[in-house]
## 1
Amino acid sequence: MSQGEAIPFAQAHAVAELVVDVLRPLCERVEIAGSLRRQRPEVHDIEIVAIARWENEPDYGLLETTWTPVNLLEQRLLATLGHLEPRLVENHRADGSIERTTKLGPAFKALVAGGIPLDLFITDAERWGCIFALRTGPGAWNIRLVDECKAIGRRVREGRVEAWRGSSSSWEPLLTPEEADFFRALGQPWVEPRDRHPDRIAISRALAAV
C-alpha cells in the first residue's frame, strides 16, 4: 500500500471505476480491491484484481492458418495510454542504493491512473478468491488471518490455501474460486470488507472446508 498523498474516496473511486471499464474487455474478471473496497474515506492508491482474457488469433501462413492463444491484457494494456501509464517503483539494493524501475510483470503491474498510483494484481480463476481477499486487506487483518489458520492445519502460499493431510504427510491445495471459498477454507466466518479488522478473526476447525 502506498503511503503517499491521501485522496478522497469519491475521487479515487471514480478513477478506479473508469479503469475497470477500460480493462473489462481485456479480462475475464476485474474488480476494485484494497481500501476502496473497504470504503475508507481517504485512500493512498487504487488496487485492482483481474483475470486476463485469452483469445485465439490467426496466423496466416502460405499453406495454412494457425491459431495462437494471446493474453489480451498483456497485449493491449499499455495501448490504453491516456488512462494508464507505467509507474516507477523504488528498489532498495543491498548496497544501500535505490533503483527506480517499472514493474510490469505477469502477476503485478505498477501503474498510474488519473495521477493516482494503481496496483494491478493478475491471478487465475482457481486463486481468485484468495488473491481478491488478501488484496482487499487491510494488512493487519491479512497477517493475523494467515498466522492463525496454521493452528487448524492450513497455510496460504503463492496465492493458494493449502491443507495439511496427516494421512499422506503432505499439503493439499484447496481451490478458492470465490472469496467465500477462501474464508471457508480457513474456517473463518464471512466478514464484510468494510468490517475487516484483526479483532474480527475467529478461525474455527469446525467451519473449515475439508
## 2
Amino acid sequence: MTLDFTFFALAIPAVLFAGISKGGFGSAAAFAAAPLLALIVEPAQAVAVMLPLLIVMDFSALKPYWRQWQPRTSWILILGGVPGALLGALLIGRANPDVFRFLIGLIAVSFVIYQFSRDQGWIPVAGAPMSDRSGFLFGIGAGLTSFIAHAGGPVASVYLLSKRLGKREYQATTIIVFWANNLLKFGLYASLGFFSPQTALADLYLFPVAIIGTYLGVYMHRIVPERLYFAVIYICLTLAGAKLIHDAIA
C-alpha cells in the first residue's frame, strides 16, 4: 500500500463520508469508505485502515448521543454480532483477496438495491416489533457483514426500524452497537494480520478527517435533509461495487 496522492485523493473524501454518516447523517452509509478504498488497495488493507477510524468516529459520536440508546435492543444486537464476527473471521481467513473483493462489491451493490427498494415501498418496514430471537439473528448478520466490509448498518437497520425508535434513540443505538462490534473486530483483524505499519501511518494522517466528519455529521443530522447526500452515496457505492465485482471475476 503506497500512501501517495491517489490514495489520499480517494481516502480523504471516503473517510469524510463515513464520519458524516457516523455522526448521524445517514448512518447506514458509513461503510461506503471500505468499497471505495478497496478500489486502490487490497481489500484487507481497506478494512484495516478503516477500522481504527470507525472506532474513533464512534467514540467521538458517543458524547452527543450518550445514554440515549435503547438498552435491550442494543444488547441483543451486540451479542448477536459476536458469532457473526467470528463467522466472518473464519470465512475471510480461508479466502483469497478476490473472494474478499467480490464480497465487498456484492454487499455494496446489494445495499443500494435494498435502500432503493425500501424507498420505493417495494420492501415494507415490519408492521410489528421483531422478537428478541429475530434481533439476535439480525445481529449475527450485522456482525458478519460488518466484519467483511464494515457494512453491518443496513442489516441492523431492518431490526431497528421494526422497533419504531425515535430519531436520536435509533442513532444512539446504532453507535453503541457498532462501537462494541468494532472493538471485537479489532482483535480479530490483528489475529489475521490485517494491520501493518502502512495502515497505522495512513490512520495517523486520516484521524483528523474522521473526527471532523463525525462532528459535521452531528450538525447536519439536525438541520440538513438527507436526499442529496444519499444520492451521492448510492452512485459511489454502485460504481465502486460493480468495479470490485468485475475485478474479482476478471
## 3
Amino acid sequence: MTDWKAARELLEEDRVWSAYALADLDPHLRHLSDFWLEASSLLLRFRGLTPPVLFAFGKPALIRKLCAGIDQAEYIFTFDLAAREALDGLLLVEHELEMHRMHFSGSWHSFDRFVGASRLTIEQVDDILDLFRDQPDRPDAFHPSQLDHGSFFGLILDGQLVSIAGTHVVSEMMSVAALGNVFTHPDWRGRGYGRIVSGSVVKDLLSRGIETIVLNTQVENEAAVQLYHGLGFENYCRYMEGAAYGPV
C-alpha cells in the first residue's frame, strides 16, 4: 500500500515540478494513481489517461530501479533530463519533445483586464469536442471529466466556441493546478483570444486560493512561451515528454 503521507512530503520538496503528482494525491484522482517510493525517489503511474502517464521524482539511479519493476506497456512519460538519460535502454522511446515547465509568479491585479470569456461546464462538452475535432494541433490531454473539477473558459462569437483554455488538473486540497487545453480555432487566431481565455482561467484559479499554478509548453514554441511570460509565468525547468514502451 502506498504511503500517501510520505509521497506528499517528498513531492512538496519541489511543488512546481511535482504539481501534477500532488494533484493526483487528491481523493478524486487517487484511485487512478499508483506510486512507488524508495528513499528520496518516487515513480507515479497515472491511469486516468490512455496510455497511462509516468512521472518520476528523485535520484536517477533509483528512478531506473523503480521503473524496471512496473508492468510492461505503452506509456506517456514526463521525466526531467537526468531521469530521462538514466532510463536509456529501459524504455523504447517512440517519440519525445523537450518541454518547458513554467509557473505563475505574477500578481492578481494584472488579471483585471481579462473580460469577455464565459465559464464552460460539462454542458458545453460537445461544443468543445467540435472545436477540437479534426484539428492536428488540438490538445492531446483533454478528457471531459476535467470539466467537473477544473476551470474552463471560452470565447463564444457568433454563437460558436472559437477559443478555449482550461486545466489539466486542479486540487484545492493540495493547492495546485495546471493550465492546459488552450486552443483557438485556426480561423480566429492572431487576435489575442488565447491570452483572454488563459488569463480568465488563471484569474479564476487565484480567486480559489490556488498556490501553485504551472503549465507546459514546447521549448521550440516561442510564441506560446512569450504569451505565457506576458501572463506572469516564468520558465522553471526543461524536461522530456514523450511516448515509450517498456520496461525491456
